Amino acid sequence: MSLVSVITAAPRRLGVRVVGALLSALLLTGTALAQDDFGDTPYVQTPQNVVDRMLQVAHVGPGDYVIDLGSGDGRMVITAAKKYGARGFGVDLDRRLVELSNRLAARAGVADRAVFYERNLYDTDLTAASVVTIYLLPEVNLMVRPKLLATLKPGTRVVSHDYNMGDWPPDQQMVLDAPDKPVGRDKTSKVFFWVVPGNAAGKWRWRLPVAGKPADFELVVSQNFQTVTGSVMVDGVAWTLENARLSGVNISFILNDPRRAARYEFTGRIGDHGIAGTVRVTGATVQRQLEWDATRTEPGAPAHAALKKPDPLELQRMQQMQ
Q: Do 10 and 89 fall within a single domain?
């Protein structure tokens, strides 16, 4: 997993000053750069225990297709193939690292399931991925974020080593010991995990029995990344919406009937035009589970869809101000 191979290619995207500052910071902190077996191409390896943890957090299995952006020596995709039975590929701008990765995949007996290409990550087709792994600079994370959100299927898992995605909050994050990490003084690594959210924004309607009579529900949802909020009216009466959650295309929330102390726990999957799922109804005199089908009556767009792609020059200025 190559970080410095991204740094050495970054002048085309981020400017020489940023790259020089990053390399200087590595040297000033007393960190060392690992060398590949050619001896002259520096890159930062992801420690194997961090690779293992990233794949565990993403729940990688035999049915997954893993794409690694900035793949370095290929250990992420090779491990995914050998240990978890997955398939996938990695991309890197360093031809020698790509050649090394393909040799290592052959040596591990997984060359039919782990392949590596000399390719720019911005030009890489990600649509086949069920899991994307990255070890990139913070600025590059922000630049690739719009591509991840726009092209990956909802439910695709994304795992990043050390750096987050700005204001896209992770679904999970953790710090673990990384004694083999070739950079940094504290020998720890951060792991960030996201599930690409589906689109829940807009207005939804459905009908369910309330107190023995059919009632019309109207839910209005606002969304930013995987965070959803909203309001609901039931036959013209406002109900309380609680614990709204979105993970990929899976949505859940709770509605409370203010007049009857009844609780409706909804879970469902978002499709092209509707939601299909179940609702568990509990109260003083009732406890049952019903089928639930909602129709989107007014489409909406998540707030993050309107975010502009970061300007590399602006990112450079931000870096210089820090």
A: yes
Range of the domain at 46: 4-193
Question: 252-287 in b/e burial notation, b at 16+ Cβ within 10 A?
Answer: ebbbebeeeebbbbbebebeeeebebebebeeeeee
pLDDT in tens, 276-322: 999 999 987 778 999 999 999 999 999 999 887 777 666 656 555 55
Structure tokens at 18: 């940023």
Model pLDDT for residues 122-138, shown as the tens digit of each residue:
999 999 999 999 999 88
Torsion 318-159-91-184 (CA) sign: positive
| Residue reference for tokens 């003084």 | 185
Name the pTM for this structure: 0.85
CATH number for the domain including 289?
A: 2.40.128
What is the secondary structure of 120-155 as a DSSP string? -GGG---TT-SEEEE---HHHHHHHHHHHHHHSPTT
Overall domain count for the chain = 2
